């Protein structure tokens, strides 16, 4: 059966916010899961169905799950694996039929990462799973690294000369909406990447061209990267997680390109260029260097 009422966990997050939008466009009843329902309702100024949902507060789960037949499940950064699996068990107990889980590329083979163990747990539960194993989101380039582009006109990640098959979070969300509304995707796993794998010097060239000012790839060492991130008061655990992710790229394990997004959406995936153009305002410095920036762009 195709889902009628879907709970989107992390419904305000990078992917979740777009899943909410896509499902609404498909006339599916969406429940937006957030830890701060009041402020989300006020910000959206709408009557949309926003529910309090917190993985670490099981007392919020019952109301969030009431009458739901499918879930878009996201493990937010910092949430323990066990809290996610306990929630899956609760969902299964109250009759949720389908769980679409946002996982990461390679999670099927890498037994060391929480995504692998969460996938295994979902597979052994009574729900029908669909796994979306996504590559690195283009949106990280503004959410995490935008400050480097704005203030220093550089991309500052320790990925060496390794390639990454950037996927746009909006495409991941569009795929989520497709698989949530068509039960032929139950019990399937998809590897979601963009159309090409790029080195970060190539990404910097895309930025330069799209923003019409020179953006370089700084190619920092790992210690230099750690120093800059810690100077921004980011938690060490988060910085080390990033080092792990960029080391994966550095060693050549992040560049695999698949055709799953194109097949599922019936159109090519968005490119990094599409992303930079659409998010251009996030990268514009308040006072751009006059010599290299053309204001009409
Ligand atoms: N970034 C990448 O390149 C990438 C690639 C592949 C896979 N992934 C996976 O994608 C997942 C993250 O997805 P995302 O980037 O869309 O998420 P995100 O933007 O980091 O959003 C997380 C959202 O989760 C909510 N949240 C935080 N703590 C919570 C809790 N205790 N209970 C319930 N909700 C909580 C927050 O919303 P509220 O404040 O509104 O509650 C927040 O907006 C991770 O599992 C990551 O491994 C990421």
Automatic annotation (TrEMBL):
SUPFAM superfamilies: NAD(P)-binding Rossmann-fold domains. Pfam families: NmrA. Residues 4-239 form the NmrA-like domain. Gene3D superfamilies: NAD(P)-binding Rossmann-like Domain, UDP-galactose 4-epimerase, domain 1. It comes from the Archaea. InterPro entries: Ergot_Alk_Oxidoreductase, NAD(P)-bd_dom_sf, NmrA-like. This is Putative nucleoside-diphosphate sugar epimerase.
